Structure formats: C-alpha cells, structure tokens
Batch of 2 targets.
Target 1
Amino acid sequence: MVAVVPTSAAAQPASVMAQRRGRTGYLLLFPGMAWLAVFFAIPFVTLFLTSLQKPIPGKPGKYTSGLQFSNYADALVEYWPQFLRSFVYAGIATLLALVIAYPLAYFIAFRAGRWRGLMLVLVIAPSFASFLLRTYAWKTILADEGVITSTLNSLHLLPDGRILNTGIAVVAGLTYNFLPFMILPLYAALERVDPRLIEAAGDLYASPQTAFRKVTWPLSMPGVVAGTLLTFIPAAGDYINAELLGSTKDRMIGNVIQTNFIEFRDYPTASALSIVLMAAILVLVFTYIRRAGTEDLV
Amino acid sequence: MRWLRRNLIGIIAILVLVYLFIPIAVVIALSFNNPSGKFNTSWNEFSLDAWKNICGVPGVCSSFVTSIQIGLVSTLIATLLGSMIAFGLVRYRFRGRGTTNLLIFLPMATPEVVMGASLLALFLNLRFPLGMGTVMVAHIMFIISFVVVTVKARLQGMDPRLEEAARDLYASPRATFRYVTFPLVLPGIIGAALLGFSLSFDDFIISFFNAGTLVTFPIFIWGAAQRGIPVQVNALATLVFVVALLIVLGAQFVGNRRRKALEAPVPEPILVDRLSRS
C-alpha cells in the first residue's frame, strides 16, 4: 500500500520542517512499534522454530522442539507443484492487472479533470462489498451456462469447455480482486508526472507512441514497481480464489498452508512452507528496496 | 474513427470501472433473489424475503455484530498507535529509522496466510486461548501500518508555514497542536480509521487462523459457502456497501467544499481569533 494515499507532487514540504530531537519521538514510536515487534516480528521466530519441530512418536498432532531441517526438504518435495502454480497464477494475474489498470490510472491522472475524486472513490468502492462474496459472485458470472462461458465455447476458445473450476477462473478471480492495489500506486505515480514533459516530447516531433515509451512509461516506473509488488504478493499467498473458483487440481500454496495448519495440524510442514513463501517474497521486496530505499516504502 | 481514437483511453477507463462493479451488481441482485435450490448463485425469482427478515438465519446477525465489535476496538487502538508513530516519524529525529520503516512496511508485504500462521504458531506455543482477543490483537497488528502510511502522507502534505504562523502569533506549542496541527491532520486520521475498519471488517484469512471457535461475518460466509450462502448475507453485504459508499462520497463532497473555501482569498478570522485567545 505504498501509495494508496495520493500525495501530490507540490505538497512535499516535510524536509523544510525541522525535525526535533529528544525523548518525545521515542515515546511516540514505542507503543506501536512494540506491538509490531511482539505480534509481527516475534511470531516469525516462533514460526521458524515450529518449522524445525519433530513429531512425538505415537502421538499424532503433537510435536517437540528440534532441529529437523529435513522438514523443509520434505515439504518442498511434496508441494513444489503448488508453489510453482502460485507463482505462475500470481504472475499472470499481475500482468493482466497491469494491462487493465494502466489505461484507467492514466485517464484518472491526466484526463479526468473534476471527475478525478469521484473516479478514485469508484476504484476503492468495490472493496466495501465483502471480498468473499465478490469472489463468490464470479461463480455466477463464469457459470457453465452463463453468457461468458457459452460465448467463448461457441468460438471453441476453452480447452476444457468451461471456465469455472479451472485455472482460468482462479486467475480471473485473482486479477479482479487485487486490481485496486495496481490502480492506486499507478495513479499516484502518474499524477506526479508533469504533463508538460509529455507535451514537450510531442513538440520535439515524438509520435504519441514514442512519447509514451520514452517519457510517460519510464516516469511511471515507481508506480509500476509498487503496484506489481502489491498485486503479486497477496495473489501469491491467496487461497480464497483457488478454493471458491478452482478445482482440487488448481490448489495454491496458501491452500496447502491452511489445510496443513488448521485441518491436519501438521504444524512443522505448514510453518516450513510459510517460511519459504515469505523468503521468496522478501527477495522481491529487497530487490525493490535496493532500487528505491526504505523511505519510499511507508 | 478519429473520435474513437481520441477517446479510446476514456472508453477503456469506463469499461474497467464497469468491470470492477460487475460482481457488486451480482451480489446486490442476488440479495433480491428467491433461490431455487440451496445455492444462491443463479437468478430464480424476485423476492424481498431476505430484506424483510435480515436476521432470519441463525448466526448471520450475531457474526455481523461480532465483526463490528472487533472492527471498532481494533480500529480505535490501531489508529491511536499508528498516528503516534506517524507523528514520531515525520517530526522527530531518532536512531534506527531504516529498521523502523522496514517493520512498518513488512506487515503490508506479508501474505495474510503467513501472518495468520505465524501468529497462530505464537499463540499455540504460549497456549494462549483463541477467540475475540486474539483476533483483535491480530487486526490491530496489521492495521497499524496502513494508519501510519495514511497519516504520515497527510502530515508531509501539510504546509509548514501554517504552524510557523501560529508560533509567530505567540501560540504555545500545545495551542499550535490543538488549533492548527491536529485539525489539519484530522481528515487523514479519520481516513485511516475508515480504511482500518474496512480492512478489519472484511478480513478473513488472518481471522480464520486465530479465531478458534469465534465466528466473524467473513468466517460465517466461508462456512456457509460449502452448503449455500443464505440470501440474508447478500442483503447485509449490500447494506454495508451502500453505507460505506455514502460515507466516502460524503467525505469527498465535504472535502471539495472545504478546498473551495480555502482557495478563497479571504483569511479565516476564526483561526486567528482562537490563536490569540489561547
């Protein structure tokens, strides 16, 4: 949510304001940061320790502390297809979201005029209806006898003859659900682009396509990177879309973590998978930080 | 053809907005449905039964109330803690800024399933009983970061000259905060609280991991999905959607009017009056 709150380019006088020293700053930070340390950072330590636990023989569902690193190998050998599928589905959904979101973000930033505020409200408004119900609604929209499926079927475009309970439905659901996370950072980045730069490109005989490729697109890169991260991360960890819209063949790593943790009570396997997922995502995040620095994160 | 080319981007933008609302239309339409079987997924006939008897199915309204309670308490605490952090970050110099920024950012970049699992691992290891308390703890944790981002943006967007002017007019630091800084930041804090409440109210994954036997509204929907979601759920979700939309549109309207008022060249005498009195 790097840029959910659009900050206008002109309004950045923070550096002008003198930052005070002293104890008050620490006192303001302490309660909230302590909460994050205790309930966000420390749980990762327990998660890691849990991922190394070994089962107590003869007592299914009970584990004792250990250094069972083989849990990781076992989990990955068993569940690598779901891991791969999560990254593929999330990757496709992120690309689709970028393609769908960019024209809208561009329009709101440069052409919407006095409708800008209203359009931004309309972008976030769908989030006010329950995530689960919105996902469930795609069951109706993509139903086998529905308009979309029968149209695509008459064109012989669907390999399975249906959309629901296939990977296509899961990717469609992921694309839809995380679209606002792509639109808002893209908008925030495009809003900071000075339209005179694009005009200048035109004055220098650049075609609209060239102006977009050489000016607008590179300047919107911070939004593209932020939006891509903010769409990919929740999509890769999601299991609601796979559960409601897919079949058992389309299960993602989130489904595996959830069932192992809550239903099978195989805590070490679920923890090991969570740690691997988090590690993969941290690699992505740190690549981003190396480009942008931590100050741009929050 | 030329018209089409010039307005192509606008047409695509409107189509994308329509796309965003297709599932909402389905949710609302199905709240007026009388489903033929137990699954409310296809249109059968118009009916107002669910709206007339909105609590008619056991568990619907109690889970709804539970979610509102959790949302209110979590939002209140998270907004307070997060706003304090935002003030600290913008106004004070301190050591460990990089680590602090990272610890605020990471909860927003962590998949919910990982956060849910890691908190559950902590609670299980501590043998801490799961229920409303653990869900609130979890919600406060993940809302704080969003509050920090929202309030921080508002603070950074503020014109520092307004506070300087207050000081020049001999306002004490406390009066400056009370009459200048706080009223200017308040819209950001309210926005953060609304965002926090909507995140908490709609959260399923983290709640599901840490709820034990507690049933929130999303957990109720998840359980019902297997055997057919009652029409009342659609009616309640429609209600929430409409109320939230009205709040945000109202805020938008007030914001526009205030902006217009601020653009007027006459200075606000009330502000000066208050400052000189304090």
Target 2
Amino acid sequence: MSGTYVIKGARILGGEPADLLLRDGEIAETGRGLAAAGAEVIDADGLVALPGLVDLHTHLREPGREDAETVESGTRAAARGGYTAVHAMANTHPVADTAGVVEQVWRLGREAGFCDVHPVGAVTQGIAGRQLAELGAMADSAAQVRVFSDDGHCVSDAVIMRRALEYVKAFDGVIAQHAQEPRLTEGAQMNEGEVSAALGLPGWPAVAEEAIIARDCLLAAHVGSRLHVCHVSTAGSVEIIRWAKSKGWRVTAEVTPHHLLLDDAVVRGYDPIYKVNPPLRTVDDVTALRHALADGTIDAVATDHAPHPVEAKETEWAAAAMGMIGLETALSVVQQSMIETGLLDWPGVADRMSYRPARIGRLNGQGRPLEAGAPANVVLYDPAPRTVVDPSGFASKSRNSPFAGLELPGRVVATFLRGRPTVLEGKLQ
Amino acid sequence: MKRHLISAADLTRDDALLVLDTAEELAQVADRSIKKLPTLRGRTVVNLFFEDSTRTRISFEAAAKRLSADVINFSVKGSSVSKGESLKDTALTLEAMGADGVVIRHSASGAPHRLANWVRGSVINAGDGTHEHPTQALLDAFTMRRRLGDLAGRKVTIVGDVLHSRVARSNVLLLHTLGADVTLVAPPTLLPVAVDTWPCSVSYDLDAVLPKSDVVMMLRVQRERMNAAYFPTVREYSRRYGLDADRVARLADHAIVMHPGPMNRGVEIAAEVADSPRSTIVEQVANGVSARMAVLYLLLGGSEPAIGKEVSH
C-alpha cells in the first residue's frame, strides 16, 4: 500500500529545491513548504528528483536460468538502480514467444512488486529467425506486449524482418532489433580492430552492425513501421540512425551504459567480464555514442542487464558467456559519462532514461514529468558521493559487472513505485 | 624479467638478449656426452597441453629434463570445456601439486593470461589460439642470430596466414624489440584489418620483397582456409605466395629460409627449398630446446649459474 510522503527540498530534474507530496499513488502536489497530516517526511536536501527510470532492455533470466537471475532478484536490482519499469527480454528458456510465457513473466513481476515488468515478446518462434511468433496473441494478453525482439539473435532474414515490422503496426508494436549480420560475425569474440589484431581474437566488425541497421531503417521506411535499434555500439551506426531520423522515419535507438564508458582496450587482459555482444568498441565510438545520446539521435539508455553465474565468466575468453549486469550502476555511469562531461543535464537524463523509453514501450503510467496528477514514480538520487563499485553488495543474483573496482559518482537514495517506496535510504523496502 | 612469459612483448630488449645469450651458453650442453645440468633439480614443470602438439611438447620436455626438472605431462584432448573440467579447476589441481612452472598450449587465445590468475608458478605460453607463441619467436631469433649475427637492421620477411598465426604475432613483436625490420607478405584476406598498427611493413607482393630480405619465414597455410574464401584455390595461393626454387634464386646469397613447421611441402614451400642449405628448418628444432632451456632457467632457476659441472651418476 502506498502511504503519504512529503519529499522536502529535492532538486526536481536538478532545478531549485522544492517539495513533492505523494498521496494515493500519485504526485498530489509540488511546490514549497508542502505538508500533509500523517505524512512521512523525507529530507531530500541535495538530492536530485527524477521520474522513475524505464529500462528497455533487461534480461531477468526467468524462466530457465534462475541460477543467474529471477524476476524477483532482477527487479530488486532495478529498484536499487532507480528503475520503476523494465522490459524483460525474450531469450528465456522456454523463449517468451507465446502469450503463456509473457503472462507468466508479467505476473511474476506483479507478485514481486519492486518495479513494473513488461515482457518483450520474441519476434520469431524460439528466436530461431524462421517463423513469426504469435505476436498478436502476446499483444492481446494480460502482459500487453508492445516491444518485440529476438535479442541475442538478429532477425537477419530481410523478408521475416519486413513482415514483422508490418505485422506489429496492427497493435502499435515496435520491433527491437539486435543488429548483427550473422555471416560477418561467425565466431566473433570482440570488436575487430587494433586490439583484436594484437590479441588474436576473431573480430566483430562494425560493418556487421551498421549494414543491418541501414537495411532495417530502409525497411521500416518502406512499410511505415516503428523500428527500435538495440544497444547501438558504433559511430557508423549513429550516422545511419541520424540520417534515418532526418528523413522523418520512425526509428529509435538505445545505448548501454557500458558502451558509454568502456572501450575495447580493457579486453587486453582477456578477462571475460568485458565480453559482451555487441562488443566494447573504440574510444572514437564511445565519443560518438555520447554525443548521439546528447543530441537525441540515440533516444534512450538501456542497460542490457545480462546476468551470468560466476562459472560462465571464470573461463578462457572464447568459452565465456557474453553480457554484463548494469541495473544498479546505470545512473552512476550516465552521471560519469554524460553529466560530468557536460554533455547532458538532468532534464536530459530524465528524457533519455524515463520519458523516451516509456514512449517507445508505449507505457502509459511511466515516464511522466514530476507534476501533480502523474503516477508517483520518483527516484531520489544523490550525485555527490563517489564510491568504488563492489558487486558483492548488489541485489542482482549475479556479479558480472564490468564496473567492479571503478570509482563512480552518485547513489540512488530512494525509489517510489506509484507512491510506494521500493528503496529508502538506499535500502530495499 | 617478468614472472611469466605470455607474450613476446613481455620481453624488453635486454631480457630478449639475455635469453638468447643464455640459450647460446646452454646450447653447448647439447654437444656434451651427458646432456644434463642440475640447475632445476627439485623444481616441477608441468606441460599442460589442451591441443595436440607433439613437437612443442617434446621440445619443452627435453629442455626441462636437461635442466633436471621433474616434468609432468598433462594432456587434455579437445578443449577443457568439452572435457567437463574448467581451466580454473585444472589450474587449481596443478597448484595443489606445487608446479613451479606451467607450460600451456591451448586453442583459446588468452588462456595463459587466465591461467596466470590462478597459479602461483610461472606461466610459459607454448602457443595460445591465434594469439602468440613467444618461445617460437625466441628460437627463431636465436636461429637467425646464429646464421646472420646481430639482428639490428636485418630485414625479415614473414609470408603467409598472418591473420591466424601466433608465430607471426610473436615474431613481429620480438624482432621489432631486437631492432630488425619486419615485412609481412600475405593476401589481404589473411592480414588483420588493423595490421597497420603493428610495428612492421606490409606487402602483397612477395617477388618485390624477396631480393631485399635477409630472412624469409614461411608460415603454414591451412587448406580449409580456402573454404572460408580467404583465397580461391590452394594452387593460386601457392603460385602467388609459395616459395619455390625460382623465387629462392632471387634471394641474396646469405639469405636464409625458415619455417616453424609442420610444413605443407608443395603449398607454401617447395620440397627442394625446404631441403636446401639455406633452410634452417631442422636447426630450428634443435635450437628450440636451447631457447626453451634458457626461458625455463631464467624464469625458474633463481640465482644458480646456468651451467655447472656435468652431472655424474
């Protein structure tokens, strides 16, 4: 149940200190000197208030890999990271390619209660890329799926991709593409370039991402559909997306925190904690991604939170699993890479981490400005402290954070989901 | 010297010269009636081979035994993953046995880096995937130095499948450290895209490079590369990049021909070239034992002199 809270002196989107009154799951009022009988008062002096964050790209691993993450543990991690909604990717076991699986994941999210869980439906049956999954049934289910993705696998067949883009128009869906030309990336282990040449690891060339993005933009334009590009990682991809947007085509894109902060030089020690798909790219790519997020070419930060058990990473590079966790560090990484570099302000962070991802996912109750009448999805964030990332304290079941040992700024102090605190004083409620 | 030898880049110029000078001293032992030194008595060297390579394993084994180390051969067919035991668990097993040095051969690039996190002993890379093979580079440099003297300013041409070659990577790094000028020659498909960042030159034209070369090192080319469209046919590869008698005739008189083995006679190297007096291929095998003795001695030997008196039993 949501109580009544008065948040005192928070800097709403980094602005002047103001109060927020949360009541009955909504923001009842904002302004100065607010009070309410029986309300719990939260001192937010020095804290930035942001709308609850929305992640377009989360692997919760349930059903199937509950050793790595569950809906409950993953949403606890999300709440600690300031999220009030996550999109749970479809590559579970079984795959989320039927109304039954997406409803199960959606229901588990409701039961856990730490943040809204919006299942992503698979585009093709078994994410095998051959036959469309029952997209309409997933859209019509209790989970009301609007985002469809074969993430981890690219819908590489141009005809299947075209049909999927067309088909989901009937229910305002969007295809979120993992852009990876399969033949160009057979056995690929890391970004193809100077570091892969030195390390003798098979390369994952930027062109394998860019060629698919270019094709998909053209397809989306041709059939008038919505395309969302997952985890953009190269400067060339940014240019293509910028061009597609300049045409007025309905293309959106996301970038991960790790692609905003890390480059492929970290692979030199062969520690698979840095193995991820798409791979970490070059410093020039990182710079281009930051600027694209700043100018809005890239719409959203999405974590691609990908939990793996310890043994999946304690191996030789080639045998290790791809992926990194990111829910509990995303805001800190964005502060480090975007705020402290002067590229983005707090309203920009609210836009890229809440408003726009909610719009892309067609979530009505999320990503709303912190104004009276909006659902009380609020994060209180302290940008001042700097701490060394220690995954042993994470709420996620997994520990595969590439930021472990790095000093990052900021800390999520409180998260409210429709007026109910999921995190207070930095602790899960 | 660093504790491990994982990349040729681990060696400074002084380190590399020390290894080569030590190998020269130790090579004298091969001419003695009793080829054994007491230097590493009581030390344990594990040959951890995840990939079949009889010639490299017996070279390391001979090197360790000539220094009186105890040698344990640990061969794991296929990858550690297919066997069901992780590299980490294998490493912990070796650690429990008290290995002073682990010589590792693995099909995965970077496996020696990972192993070095889990064992206290010195890790010696005996070839990891398509990454490096530093002792091969040392034995090659040793062989060149014996034939040609100081390597500074010498022109070394390395020909073939550079993209997939751990021998090429280690040789480029070590030869650069030693002051030689390296030119890589290959079809563009068999060079890494970022080869321009390496400390060497690149050419697609073997005939243009040969007359200026002091050393021509031919790399093994695998026939299956043809199926992945790296080149059209084996015959075309051989015509454009193979070292035959006509091409050898264009070499300077003092120039030598090297090959790390195993050779594809008639593909990258003609039989009469492989068996000619310019060829150092058999010497390379013998020199491999001396170079590896030097590495084992310098990493594991501590303060004792490399060559004591002959051991008499």
